[in-house]
Amino acid sequence: MIKLFFHKTFSVLLTLLVLFSTVSFTIEKHYCGDVLVDVSVFVEAEKCEMEALEILQKKTCCKDEINVIQGQDELKFSSFDDLEFEQQLFLASFIYSYVNFFEGLSQQIVPHKNYSPPNLVRDIQVLNDTFLI
């Protein structure tokens, strides 16, 4: 039970690691003067009311800062032929020994297959009023 839980948890964590290492996203910050007004991830940051007035006056005290966090664009796929000979030998021997470690039985042995239980003449537990609880 615990082994299955750890296996599923580890699988989910590795999936999230691959997902977050390949996803790119932006963090946009809007400053009004030196005061941080809004921070936004994935969408445009909300502007302040001062910016609407600045368009009419042609003076800017607001600024936007955009941080782009790049994910990994190229994933490297390697094949068995890309490995060195020692690595190929180790991997082949490990797989061979691991597969042969779990060989099943040729047929399942049932020791009581041809056994029939004896006929009950009397129910001894009821006669002696002895019951296992």
Give the key terms.
single chain, 133 residues, alpha+beta, three-stranded antiparallel sheet, 4 helices, 3 strands, 17% strand, elongated
Describe the protein's architecture and organization.
This protein is α+β, with helices and mostly antiparallel strands and 133 residues long. It has 4 helices and 3 strands; from the N terminus they run H-E-E-H-E-H-H. Strands 2-1-3 form a 3-stranded antiparallel beta sheet. Strand 1 (25-32) and strand 2 form a beta hairpin.
Helix content: 25-40%
Strand order of the largest sheet: 2-1-3
The low-confidence runs, each spanning 5 or more residues with pLDDT under 50, are none
The strand count comes to 3
Distance between the termini: 29 Å
**Sheet with most strands:** 3 strands, antiparallel
